[in-house]
Amino acid sequence: MVLEFKNIKYDNWYKGWKKSKQPRKQRKYLINAPIHIRRKIMCSTLSEEIRKILRIKSFPIRVGDYVRILRGKFRGTEGLVVKVDAKRYRVFVENAKYNSKTGKEIYYPIHHSKLMILKLNLTDKLRIEALIRKVKDRERVDEIIKKFSVGQEDVKKAIDIGRNI
């Protein structure tokens, strides 16, 4: 369910709401944020090994990232991110699914804060540039590309699965 305030539209959305300490304005910021801002808000924590190398705690989640679920019914499950739903702030993971009453397999929606990124999808040059901007060191990013990047075949597989959801 997507929550909306009655009189707020994306045209009236104000970035200054984020600076407020009031919980109601923080909720208002999240609920009424446009999609391009929601994508940046949807960050997940990085694994300890990646954290030591990059010296950052979190990074925006994307289709093709290899993650571990930290909370809920599927705790401890690892898999590729199949779909990112920025409208509902939810992520769908390859191995987190259940059978409906009709027998159809349905992917379970998981909040991005309940995930830990184990391997990054670094097939996109723009994402690598974003990582370099955040880390400010090309050598550390090259080390991550060698050790903790998901393969092209896995990314294509995740994209194909995501199209069928």
From TrEMBL:
Drop me one GO molecular function for this one: structural constituent of ribosome
Keyword list, A-Z: Ribonucleoprotein, Ribosomal protein, RNA-binding, rRNA-binding
Which biological process, per GO, is one annotated for this protein?
A: translation
Q: Which CDD domains match?
A: KOW_RPL26
Statement: the UniProt record of this protein carries the keyword RNA-binding: yes
Note the InterPro entries from the entry.
Answer: KOW, Rib_uL2_dom2, Ribosomal_uL24_CS, Ribosomal_uL24_euk/arc, Ribosomal_uL24_KOW, Translation_prot_SH3-like_sf
KOW domain residues are 60-87
One Gene Ontology term, aspect cellular component: large ribosomal subunit
Q: Which Gene3D superfamilies match?
A: 2.30.30.30
SUPFAM superfamilies reported in the protein's UniProt record: Translation proteins SH3-like domain (SSF50104)
The UniProt subunit note reads as follows: Part of the 50S ribosomal subunit.
Q: What's the stated role of this polypeptide?
A: One of two assembly initiator proteins, it binds directly to the 5'-end of the 23S rRNA, where it nucleates assembly of the 50S subunit.
Entry similarity comment: Belongs to the universal ribosomal protein uL24 family.
Task: Write down what this protein is called.
Answer: Large ribosomal subunit protein uL24
Q: Which organism is it from?
A: Candidatus Nanoclepta minutus
- Taxonomy-wise, where does this protein's organism fall, top ranks first? Archaea, Nanobdellota, Candidatus Nanoclepta
